[in-house]
Write the structure tokens for this entry.
Amino acid sequence: MTNSGRSPASRDLEFTLAQLRGDCVRMAPHWTVPATVADAPVSPSRIHGVVVPAASVRLVRGMTGG
């Protein structure tokens, strides 16, 4: 427990959906839509440069029960 009386896990839950949406808005310019639909899946090696804040990861992970 911290001096505030809350555990680090409970503070993570204070990260709001509005903050998550804000993170998504900031990341959206990095995601482009191709002019045509690709037939094959994108190789993971082509996916780079996107950083997801840890608080967003924890919020989504908590929502999915994972």
